[in-house]
User: Fold DUF2500 domain-containing protein from Pseudenterobacter timonensis.
Amino acid sequence: MSKMPLFFVVVVAIIFIAASFRFVQQRREKADNDAAPLMQKRVVVTNKREKPLNDRRSRQQQVTPAGTTMRYEASFKPETGGLEMTFRLEAQQYHQLTVGEKGTLSYKGTRFEGFEPEQ
Assistant:
């Protein structure tokens, strides 16, 4: 009988440790992005993706359909060559982009700051 509560304590401890690790990781990434210099590169928009965020369990979706919360991402390839970069964007920023469009990308670390298209 005493093994069952011990099992649950271990499971709860593992979940707590994993959640704490993720929280610290997110804080560290935010601090690194804040400290990073503003970089600008001439790029081409190579891809756009939007997908619904599923924050409900399957049973809840049967009762009430999922909300309209979306995640927006765009990929950029430097004109001079190099690795493609993918950033998460806000809806307004996402809808202003067109695949194949050239311009100047501004970013800090892994955070998208802006895109200025060529005239």
User: Anything to note?
Assistant: The mean pLDDT is 86. Residues 40 and 106 are 4 Å apart (CA to CA). The helical segments are 3-35, 58-63, 91-96. The chain has three helices and five strands.
